[in-house]
Structure to design on (273 residues):
């Protein structure tokens, strides 16, 4: 009996030696299995530098048929302000001039406004329409100030983004960085150097792939998104696969090490018993 215990003890001692010989490289492998290094924005941007030919932010879209406009008037004639601003809400429920609290640009390129009737707006920018209305309201209001915003301009962002969404654009311009930040930024598995923008131009669709790791984006006309753009953030498939394989390897090694440790404890208890 003593001889049998001695033999089993030798097996356990040998098994422990093998276990520790296996555990050491396994632990080293686990320690070395760090996650893949992520990309970052403007990787090519040097320290203490100046970017020349920065794309200007003076882009303003023209009002087109089907646009929905928010038109708010303030002046030194409070009663007229109330009548003008409330007329939009009334028309929203019963008239052709506005829909859902905003003025719909009709097929003839006009909007129906209090006091002014059908006003041509197609082809104007928001600023141009504001100045036009301020001048035309002078006979009815004292020092009118008109604010015009879009209610149906938007940009759609999807793909490897924290919060895919349809982002409203009441004002312009909005750059691609603002769009990403307001959507919670890209996910760890995103390709910052491969972001696609789909832009409608008449009956055509233009597709552009931009690289946000390259600071040349600041000089690109695609730095500023336009109404109804679609922004798609591509996934980094290789990085995702590496991370998944790393997690699987770590899990497998942990299970093997735990199983071996449990087996040693059981055998040790048997010998002592």
């Amino acid at each position: 009996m003593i001889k049998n215990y001695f033999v089993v003890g030798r097996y356990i001692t040998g098994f422990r030696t093998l276990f520790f010989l296996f555990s050491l490289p396994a632990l080293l492998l686990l320690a070395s299995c760090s996650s893949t290094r992520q990309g970052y924005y403007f990787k090519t941007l040097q320290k203490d530098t100046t970017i020349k030919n920065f794309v200007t932010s003076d882009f303003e879209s023209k009002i087109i048929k089907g646009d929905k406009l928010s038109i708010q008037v303030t002046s030194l004639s409070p009663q007229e302000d109330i009548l003008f601003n409330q007329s939009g809400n009334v028309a929203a429920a019963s008239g052709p001039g506005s829909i859902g609290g905003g003025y719909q640009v009709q097929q003839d390129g006009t909007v129906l406004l209090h006091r002014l009737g059908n006003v041509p707006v197609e082809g104007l920018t928001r600023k141009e329409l504001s100045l036009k209305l301020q001048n035309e309201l002078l006979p009815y209001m004292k020092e009118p100030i008109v604010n015009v915003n879009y209610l149906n301009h938007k940009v759609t962002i999807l793909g490897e983004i924290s919060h895919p969404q349809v982002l409203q654009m009441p004002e312009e311009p909005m750059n691609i960085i603002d769009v990403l930040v307001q959507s919670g930024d890209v996910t760890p598995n995103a390709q910052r150097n491969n972001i696609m923008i789909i832009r409608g131009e008449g009956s055509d669709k233009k597709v552009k792939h931009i690289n946000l790791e390259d600071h040349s984006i600041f000089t690109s006309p695609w730095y500023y998104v336009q109404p109804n753009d679609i922004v798609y953030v591509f996934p980094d498939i290789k990085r995702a696969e590496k991370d998944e394989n790393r997690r699987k390897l770590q899990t497998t090694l942990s299970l093997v090490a735990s199983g071996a440790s449990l087996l040693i404890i059981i055998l040790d208890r048997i010998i002592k018993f």
User: Anything to note?
Assistant: The chain has three domains: 2-32+238-272, 68-150, 154-235. Residues 1-9, 90-100 have pLDDT under 50 and may be disordered.
